[in-house]
Amino acid sequence: MIQRFADWLIYSVFGLDSASKLGSSINYFVYDTVKIYLLVIVIVAVIAFIRTFLSPHKIKEVLGRQKFGIGNIAASILGAVTPFCSCSSIPMFVGFIKAEVPLGIAFSFIITSPLVNEVVFVLMGGTFGWGIASLYAFSGIVLGVAAGVILGKMKLEKEIILKLGDVKGESLNLNYLPKSIDGKIQFALRDSFKTFKKLWLIIAIGVGIGAAIHGYVPADFFQQYLSVDSIIAVPIATLVGIPVYAGCSTLVPIVFAFVQQGIPLGTALAFMMAVAGLSLPEAIMLKKVISIKLLAIFFGIVAVGIIFTGYIFNAIT
After folding, report:
1. Residue 141: which pLDDT band, with cuts at 50, 70 and 90?
2. Which H, E and C letters describe the chain, residue by residue?
3. How many domains does the chain have?
4. Structural domain of residue 170, as residue ranges?
5. Is the pLDDT of residue 154 over 50?
């Protein structure tokens, strides 16, 4: 429905050519911005509504008590079954943070969510075979779990800069939770729009950068950098992919084209995972939630994990 709205607005109302770079970029911007705005409002409201039935500290206590990364596994599996891109997964990440879910578990979700979903799995299976698709899905979940566990052990909660306002202070007093259904709904809506007001501009800026890259940077621009036949090809592919913004489902055909032209599968997948999981627009949006220090640590750990995954695929294929 959102895509139809974007097509109608850009191509019918404004009369832009769907084949032009400008038309494609603006259409992408409208679609992704509206989609993420709705996700922020709806997901944060739903999580806030659920929080009115549960103490935030209780949620934190239950998830934080899970040993051996069980909470991280649960978050990564949840990420794998939700069809979000890196930017679309941020509202859920914000919801986890506001519910005081342990930071490492929240990161497990936001790492796996853009990398693995049922659409990517089907596309990978139809393109590369179900064995490769299964291994890719497994590697995405393992990456989310491992990186989340590492980030959780580093005790970086003080690096969260999202202003939670009264929510954190009130969470010490269970009486602040509304009792009536009307009160719970009002609480959820207030919390949702309060969060939206803090994020709407930075979301628009982030998606705008992604739209410009989507419309004006051709795929063969990156292909010349991925064709390097050396041990540094995987790190190069990862670094080249980070500034780009697209979903894995969009990139699977491009990755297949890369492989058909002789680029090793692991190198091509490292590029795809970096594009999907470590985009520049995602970094801009996350800057409103976490500090530059934590953002750099997060990107660094995930980038190392992606490079390691690329080497593994190159070794076995």
Report:
1. very high
2. CHHHHHHHHHHHHCCCCCCCHHHHHHHHHHHHHHHHHHHHHHHHHHHHHHHCCCCHHHHHHHHHCCCCCHHHHHHHHHHHCCCCCCCCCHHHHHHHHHCCCCHHHHHHHHHHCCCCCHHHHHHHHHHHCHHHHHHHHHHHHHHHHHHHHHHHHCCCHHHECCCCCHHHHHCCCHHHCCCCHHHHHHHHHHHHHHHHHHHHHHHHHHHHHHHHHHHHCCHHHHHHHHCCCCCCHHHHHHHHHCCCCCCHHHHHHHHHHHHHCCCCHHHHHHHHHHHHHCCHHHHHHHCCCECHHHHHHHHHHHHHHHHHHHHHHHHHC
3. 1
4. 2-316
5. yes
